[in-house]
Design brief:
The chain is α/β, with parallel strands linked by helices. Helix content is 38%, strand content 14%. The strands form four sheets. The protein has an eight-stranded parallel barrel, surrounded by six helices. A three-stranded mixed β-sheet has the order 7-9-10, with helices on one face. The structure holds beta-D-fucopyranose. Beta-D-fucopyranose binds next to loops.
């Protein structure tokens, strides 16, 4: 990528027309607390499940932890200045619940709140709209010890914490996301166990998914009560799921995975019901006895917007008879034997297939559920970067953004009320179980010196924001 012989970035892309986005389109970038803040044990912050998990041997590549991360906690001013240079209209960040309410319930830590007050004030002073995510995977450890998301009480604790945040920042923060990607919290955290807290029980994963959504519904109500003018939404990670062939068995495999990945969340949140076929698929895992009367009404409390995180597409096939199941714990309870197929198309450094049309498809699908404004709250790619002469020429990442913005524009042309786009990520950071080995940032971070270098993609994104669209190429 940084080979001096390679052509300049623009030549890598095909000839493409310029595109303009609707006036007021909210151009942003996103991060999450545990991935960037560091200062894990400072100013009263207590451990979350990600502190415990990353400090457990064998959980995160190379034993990396978020103890220091990008040291954003101490570099807030410098980081907001970089955002201002990019011309960001909005910055999506998450709050570390453990910083604000170290025990997960009860006493509030004023120093924790102060950090977020300073961040929000700094953003506003720079004309950047703060977009606050309440929960990006980092449950306070004491709540996990009390049962975690499979326990119903965690939903009520989340609502209490939401009220704390709404009271503290509701006068300055307009946009609120309750949960980031509940599928990951539930099915990677309690199903396959590759994310914190690392538990591996299919029924617990399903229960966690339900209680996350219940917590979301209660949090929406808490926000409405405290701040009637807040714009409130949730962020789901969605994938188009295609069958590898037209055979009935492959199509059934796609239906099952689509149920678990997408409809498990979209249907309760936006329609107030679980899909019947999904409940049937899960019958050997759980009888859904954790669902109480009124839960689905709470979960489907009306929203102001829906956030969509999009990275890739799943292509799946029916199990092959005679081939033993993978014994590893699965994030697809009840459908463990479905095969995930690779198509041989280009992939990112995560191995995720690059599929920009899948973003158009996904946005159109969500629009089929709701008339609400939609936002792409995350989209981006990991690639191996190299610093050459103090520069990072990340042409692959730039091309990924370009293709996906064109796909987002196609969705707008098709009538989707898409109101904004947040690049993942503002800067390189702690990529969960992959630690610091995967780089998603538009800004390069040297983790030894904490020096930040805006990459080519950052300069390009700044020009996209300036012209509210893409230049012809
Ligand atoms: C999403 C997460 C985000 C980041 C990207 C690459 O699933 O929300 O924190 O890890 O993937």
């Amino acid at each position: 990528m940084s080979n001096p012989a390679s052509p300049p970035a623009v030549d890598v892309l095909d000839e493409r027309p310029g595109l303009t986005f609707p006036p007021g389109f909210l151009w942003g970038a996103a991060t999450a607390a545990y991935q960037i803040e560091g200062a894990a044990a400072e100013d009263g912050r207590a451990p979350s499940i990600w502190d415990t998990f990353s400090h457990t041997e064998g959980r995160v590549v190379a034993g990396h932890t978020g103890d220091v991360a990008c040291d954003h906690y101490h570099r807030l001013g410098e980081d907001v200045a970089l955002m201002a240079e990019l011309g960001l209209k909005s910055y999506r960040f998450s709050v570390s619940w453990s910083r604000v309410q170290p025990a997960g319930s009860g006493a509030v830590n004023p120093q924790g709140l102060d950090f977020y007050r300073r961040l929000v004030d700094e953003l506003l002073a720079n004309g950047i709209e703060p977009w606050l995510t309440l929960y990006h995977w980092d449950l306070p450890q004491p709540l996990e010890d009390a049962g975690g998301w499979p326990a119903r009480d965690t939903a009520a604790r989340f609502a209490d914490y939401t009220t704390v945040m709404a009271d503290a920042l509701g006068d300055r923060v307009r946009y609120w996301t309750t949960l980031n990607e509940p599928w990951c919290s539930a099915f990677l955290g309690y199903g396959s166990g590759v994310h914190a807290p690392g538990r591996t029980n299919g029924a617990d994963a399903v229960r966690a998914g339900h209680h996350l959504m219940l917590g979301h519904g209660l949090a929406v109500q808490a926000l409405r009560a405290a701040r009637p003018t807040a714009e409130v939404g949730v962020t789901v990670n969605l994938y188009p799921v295609d069958p590898a062939s037209d055979s009935p068995a492959d199509r059934d495999a796609a239906r099952r995975i689509d149920g678990l990945a997408n409809r498990f969340f979209l249907d309760p949140l936006l329609r107030g019901s679980y899909p019947e076929d999904l409940v049937a698929d899960l019958s050997a895992v759980t009888d859904f006895d954790h669902v109480r009367d009124g839960d689905l009404a709470t979960i489907s409390t009306p929203l102001d917007l829906v956030g969509v995180n999009y990275y890739s597409r799943h292509v799946v096939a029916a199990p092959v008879e005679g081939v033993p199941d993978d014994p590893a714990p699965s994030c697809w309870p009840g459908s463990e034997d479905v095969r995930f197929v690779t198509r041989g198309v280009p992939v990112t450094d995560m191995g995720w297939e690059i599929d920009a049309p899948g973003l158009t498809e996904t946005l159109r699908r969500v629009h089929g559920y709701t008339e609400l404004p939609l936002y792409v709250t995350e989209n981006g790619s990991a690639f191996v970067d190299s610093v050459v002469d103090g520069q990072v020429d990340d042409v692959d990442r730039l091309a990924y953004f370009d293709a996906h913005l064109r796909a987002a524009h196609d969705a707008i042309d098709a009538g989707v009320p898409l109101r904004g786009y947040f690049a993942w990520s503002l800067m390189d950071n702690f990529e969960w179980a992959w630690g610091y080995t995967k780089r998603f940032g538009m800004i390069h971070v040297d983790y030894d010196s904490q020096v930040r270098i805006p990459k080519s993609s950052a300069r390009w994104y700044a020009s996209v924001i300036r012209r509210n669209g893409l230049a012809a190429q």
